[in-house]
Amino acid sequence: MASRNFYFQMIIRVVLITLAALGSAYFVILEWFWVGGVFLISIGFQTYFLISYINKTNRKIAYFFDAIRNEDFTLRFPEKVSIQSFKELNSSLNRVNQLIQDVQLKLQVRERYYQEILKQIDIGIMTIDEKGHILYSNPFLEKLLNFRPLLHLKQFRQIDLKLYELIDNLGPFEQKYYQLVNEREKNQLFFKAVPINMEGKALLLVTVQDLHKELDEKETDSWVRLIRVLTHEIMNTITPITSISESLSKYYKVDEGGELKWENLNEDQIKNTVKGLNVIKIQGEDLMDFVQSYRSFLDLPNPDKSLVNIKALLERLKVLMRMENNSRKLEFNVLVEPEDLEFYIDEKQIAQVLINLSKNAIQSVEGQNNGELTIKASINAQGRKYIEVKDNGPGILAEQMDEIFVPFFTTKNGGTGIGLSLSKQIMHLHGGSIRVHSIPFKETTFVLTF
């Protein structure tokens, strides 16, 4: 509406100037010079008013955009003016100004929200421009480095010269580790850099994680779970001993002089005593075996590595498993890609891991008509060699996934709970890892990565 009135005003003024020019020319031809002069003066006034009108409108729009650029939303244009076109233009500019102000306020609220999140997370974050200026760093990073405020990379020289060299040479998509030692503590830092582009500027987003803290938390959690399992196993063994001892002690009463009253004993009590002592002996032996298995877990020797043809090892494992389980309907597959693949391992230790995983898989598919066990050795996309043990049994419950590698945790009757934890320890000594993935009643896969 404002633009239509503006054009209407422009057309009227141009028409008046045109008419004045024609009138001036007409009266000059008639040699009525004084009348032509009046029209000529009128042309000057009309031109002046046209230019003023356009400049007034342009100045308003220019002020409006200057205010927006400077984020000044206090600028208001008067809407109570006599000229209708100016009134509508001012009203439109005020509405646009209010809309932009509302959007700006929402953006500020969102920005404060994200900044608050960055302040609370336990990961250091900073953005660096091409000249080394640190445009943003969250409080956790400043606390981790014990230095604030962080404004430029050169400040890292005051923290640690080698740390400065590491960050200064950190490129896009690079990951680096560094142990920062100060008078308070040691921190194992993990740096990761990602390039970003903001307002046409190339920036580097660097995240810093304190691995020492993460490892401490995981170690504490592991100890808690281990102690819980140890307590459970020991209590299961000791409780019957305590109960039987208490029951037997009631058979043997002494008089005031401390002499045992043998005449009070009958044949049934003597038989129960023998049985009770036998149970105590068995429970004691079980507890000794439990402690011995714990010692064997802790005293695992370092691997004696050599180059091993993995296909030959897996074929021997296949024969062994078939001999032990010839009565079960089981499809046992061995896949090696490439066939001449060799692993630098302790053959006896890795064979023990594979035997343990294979036995677990065979037990899980027991009773299934379509039981299947597949062992595959190959090289993954990252160039690392791996062995995969997969079965199609009922799988592992989600709540047990974090417990199965804890020493002495078991879901099987008569199981020691040492097999998987021992396998994990062997893989750790080989510098590798063991991971599990399970989809109930479809597949369970253990992956040994070297």
Fold and architecture overview:
The chain is elongated, with a radius of gyration of 43 Å. Helix 1 packs antiparallel against helix 3 and helix 7 runs antiparallel to helix 8. The chain contains 11 helices and 12 strands. Strands 2-1-5-4-3 form a 5-stranded antiparallel sheet. A 5-stranded mixed sheet has the order 7-9-10-12-11, with helices on one face. A two-stranded antiparallel ribbon has the order 6-8. The chain has 4 domains: 105 residues, no CATH class; 94 residues, PAS domain (Beta-Lactamase); 83 residues; 144 residues, Heat Shock Protein 90 (2-Layer Sandwich), CATH 3.30.565.10. It is an alpha+beta fold and 450 residues long.
- Helix/strand class: alpha+beta
CATH class of the largest domain: Alpha Beta
The CATH topology of the largest domain corresponds to Heat Shock Protein 90
From the spread of the alpha carbons, the general shape counts as elongated
Rg measurement, Å:
43 Å
CATH architecture of the largest domain: 2-Layer Sandwich
State the separation between the terminal residues, measured CA to CA.
74 Å
The side-by-side strand order for the widest beta sheet comes to 2-1-5-4-3
Can you write the helix and strand succession as a string? HHHEEHHHEEEHHEHEEHEEHEE
Number of strands: 12
Which strand-content bin applies to the residues?
15-25%
